[in-house]
Input
Amino acid sequence: PISPQYIQDLISWSAIGARTTESQTHREMSSGLSCAVGFKNGTDGGLTVAVNALKSVSHPHSFLGIDAEGHVSTVSTSGNKYAHIVLRGGNGKPNYDSVNIAICEQQLEQVGVRPHIMVDCSHENSNQDPALQPLVAENIVNQIIEGNTSIFGMMIESNLNAGNQPIPENLADLKYGVSVTDGCIDWETTQTSLRQMHKKLGKGI
Output
């Protein structure tokens, strides 16, 4: 967390994972980044840690970091107004439906944070099945068409080829274009999903 601001000219968006959202170090760092930062809800599906993170990130902080010349220094921030929540489901349950979106909006407004919501179409929101991501995306698009204004984006885990693979001892055995982390949909499926979303949103807006 000490170096990200030094390379900020290379980064347009950052994400803080579900297991790191509660980290004070990452909250302080995010308050000074020159880009939008998404905080995922907790692995248990709860929103509290992410909501508290957004409240913290919106305020000034001081911490040990690196200045523009690459020297270790005390960094003082003014808060990040572009931080937002990323809903990824949790504890085996999704949280992208309209009811959960409304609950999220309510909790953010209660702490004075403007509801800006991104939906992660993977993880528990797809029941850990990457092939279901386009269905989640379709649901999100329908919510936007029906008038939701807090959802501004979504995440889809995509690669050239579908699925995932373990990293073999012999790296020459790696399958080209297949994820070595979470399972993904392939590029053809990604293109189809994006085109369908564009077509529906074009009519609905």
